[in-house]
Amino acid sequence: MINIYDDINKLEATLRKTNEFKALKETVDAVRSDEEAKNLFINFRDIQIKLQQKQVAGEEILEDELVHVQKAAQLAQQNVKILAMLEAEMALSTVIEEVNRVLVKPIQSLYDGL
Question: Helix, strand, or coil here: 7?
Answer without folding.
Answer: helix
